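Many introductory courses stop at the sequence. We go one step further.
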Amino acid sequence: MSRELRRNPALSMIGIVAMVIAYVLAFTVLSDTNMASKFENGVVPPGADVAGVRVAAVGSIVAALGAWVSVVAGRAIIPIVLVLVASAPFALLSLFTLQLAW
């Protein structure tokens, strides 16, 4: 069997770690005090810098996409299932964080 057709456990592990990073970035947006104020009042307080929050919101989606690419390239079934299960709530979470960031 050629090297290309074997399973790569390192890629699968990197994919799981990337999904954890995606969740951490999404929860960073939700835990920001300026975003809590926007959630309660509908507007960001004057003088608040939201660039970092926007980067975290987009970065979480990029990390989730990277997780998918990594676990699919690793070709192991269990990490693919784990990332699939983690992606369902993350899809709703990412929509919510993107709406808060913009």
